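Lab channel / #folding
Pinned by the channel admin:
"Please post every new chain as: sequence first, then the structure tokens as a reply. Keep commentary short and put observations after the output so the thread stays searchable."

First post following the new format, from NK:
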Amino acid sequence: MKAFVTGGAGFIGSNLADRLAADGRNVFVYDSLVRPGVRANVAWLVERWGKRITFIRADVREVDTLVRAVREAHAVFHFAAQVAVTTSMQRPLEDFAVNLEGTLCVLEASRLRRDPVPLLFASTNKVYGDLADVELEQQDDGYMPLDFSYRRSGVSEARPLDFHTPYGCSKGAADQYVLDYCRSFGVPTCVMRMSCIYGQRQMGTEDQGWVAHFGLQALQGQPITIYGDGHQVRDILEVHDACAAYLEAWRHIDRTAGRAFNLGGGSENAVSLRRVIAHIEALVGHAVPLELSAWRPGDQRWYVSDPRRVRAELQLAPFRPWRHGVADLVHWLAEHRGIEMRAPERAAV
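Reply from TO:
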């Protein structure tokens, strides 16, 4: 059994490739290596799993290379993407080419087989726009909706799509193409509209991977820049829980094909940026300087996924509490960067 993972050197892709290899599967890791730091993920996978990992360095727009690789696969997990809203504002043509043209190339590689291969696609909560119609109030723990149904359960798949920013448009259009390839061509596809995923092997930057970025800044004694006021709320999901959802969606592709699911930590893992920073400060044992900057385009003051559908359909285990997951991430970052942390601080959780 062989699996094909585009963006397989990235954060989620490398974690999924590791899970697949642990299950005894051979994995094609397909990545252009343009993101700084991801070479280390390939080396880690090869060191752990040897010949179970086949690395292919190529772009998702290289159709011939894709077709040859997908020909042998029993499943395709498509994570390769331009992932930052800020980059999409600066270079919208590149964002379009990678996220939409690249996705079409992956879809075509699957469609051109005599037996179309299942394809699982990593979409984003940005397909729902800035949620400007959801009235909010600011509380001590961050922004909260006035509508009790949103406050209790979060945003469901029934929410109308509303693409904002070039990134939202490119990922949203790709999301719809993936679903339509199931309708039009019979390719068994499934879409996961992800909230904020965090965890080990995340090379966090200011533009993407904010939980890991906050942890790194704190460990290095550097200030954290917050765009907005820091009271914006996200439902964060540990990467192993996200990988479990993708694997179950593939295993049950007979009932997930042609469907989109919201995948995030849900209301029990909804937390403001300031609460995450306070937790990290407790872990590292010192305060972290904060610098405020202007809100960024399309930024949601509140976004929480309603994961009830994906949990019920795939019978997923309860998601990991965010405090435990963030603690493990901070200690992994410290070890990965050779930064010593005192033992008592680990007990802060």
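NK: The domain at 81-346 is CATH 3.40.50.720 (Rossmann fold).
TO: also worth noting, The radius of gyration is 19 Å.
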